[in-house]
């Protein structure tokens, strides 16, 4: 019985790993088709629209999945209120994001080219359901290790998107069509999570329950722990806005294309961060804790090193496919940025440890200071050193934040031991 259970879990993990990497490969194959069809400049405009829309959405989203993982248990009726509370927070955040973006556009508070305003308005509808992807529905998946169920559906969605991109490439359908595909893809992803949430609630007969005053700790937990994830997402989108402002759409396209490659490969390097968080939450023994961390770190380091060497040696082959007419310095930019992304991917294990150890409130103080300095310095670095200014500052920011998380994680575990 125990052996079958272990084999079943291993099989589910392996299937999830394969499917996630299949999705990453599909996304990588899509990039050259988009670039060749509409060029660096138009692709930069699509990424710029996404950056501003997602910035507002991320600022107003609470990241409720962490609270669901920590507090919800479908077998305990008293915890059912947490799930519905998270769901309604997600919906409220999405609707508020939609309204805020349109209000900002209406009163011209955003420095946006007039020809792009209509596209921003159309894309704003995507924001309504988007918080579910990192919220209540995501929390259910992580809590119950149901990754394989959702990943198969996401694979089908990715294949559909790829087919539509191929169609647009051969029919030469232009900027508007590819922006529509990006919006449709985001909407379908959110819809998948919504339907999954409804299916789970109906299947487990989870009834709506009233939130009590004593449950406010759940609300505060989400605010405290979600703030770090929100801060990371906001910084990424703000960086994109600064790059567009000072360097233009073309350089923004380069950075975002390399970022997508790095993040897609990161899913191969780090396939199990969501599983890791759940594991750490359920293990309080410090010896086991350190064993888990060391095991994951070894895996992350060796795989990332191997992938980085392959990517660096083959860059003259793949970058011209993903970016039209790259200059010689673009190759060095791509290698340096992928190195930074991979380093962040390896060190992401300590994001899970501080979450599991409930040390976010301490980390948050340091993060606010480091990221505030990063944002204040970014315009000056970009204007002084162009794209290299962004890259060096990004690496410094990453190392400072990682050192804080590592120090707090190790000290807390040793203290408890």
Task: Describe the overall structure.
This protein has helices at residues 2-59, 65-71, 80-106, 114-123, 136-143, 147-171, 174-203, 216-247, 249-269, 273-281, 286-313, 315-322, 328-347, 349-356, 360-385, 387-416. The protein is an all-alpha fold and 417 residues long. The protein has one domain (11-416). The chain is globular and about 60 Å long. The model is unreliable at 1-7 (pLDDT under 50).
Give the tags:
mainly alpha; 83% helix; globular; 417 residues
Classify the beta-strand content into a percent band.
under 5%
End-to-end separation in angstroms reads 34 Å
Spatial shape: globular
Output the helix-strand order. HHHHHHHHHHHHHHHH
Task: Summarize model confidence as the mean pLDDT.
Answer: 80
Rg on CA atoms, Å: 21 Å
Which structural category fits the helices and strands? mainly alpha
| Number of H- or I-type helical stretches | 16
Helix content: over 70%
Count of beta strands: 0
Quickly count the domains.
Answer: 1
**Contiguous runs where pLDDT drops below 50 for at least 5 residues:** 1-7
Q: Tell me about the biggest sheet?
A: none
In short:
The chain is mainly alpha-helical. It is built from 16 helices and no strands.
Set out the fold topology.
Blueprint: H1 2-59, H2 65-71, H3 80-106, H4 114-123, H5 136-143, H6 147-171, H7 174-203, H8 216-247, H9 249-269, H10 273-281, H11 286-313, H12 315-322, H13 328-347, H14 349-356, H15 360-385, H16 387-416
Helix pairs in contact: 1-4, 1-6, 1-7, 1-8, 1-9, 2-5, 2-8, 5-7, 6-7, 8-9, 8-15, 9-11, 9-13, 10-14, 11-13, 13-16, 14-16, 15-16
